[in-house]
Sequence to fold (81 residues):
Amino acid sequence: MSGEGSGRFVPRSAKYLQRYVQASGPAAMASYSLIGAIILIGGIGFAVDSTAGTSPWGLLTGLLVGLVVGFWELGRIVWRR
Fold:
């Protein structure tokens, strides 16, 4: 890559990369909150099953509530823009 513009390639590329990473922040946050809610509340349901012996109802309820909370957070994050 020889020529006049080759010295500006890296800074310009870094600027565009930073812009796209910042623009994708809400989408990443929405997906992390959806997955986190399912795992966290599903884990709580699993723990309830382990202690109370109500298998599989605590886990299923936890996963269902985790889905609802996760999609609620996803919608809140996406529609905030």
Summary: The CA atoms of residues 25 and 34 lie 14 Å apart. Helices lie at 9-23, 25-52, 57-80.
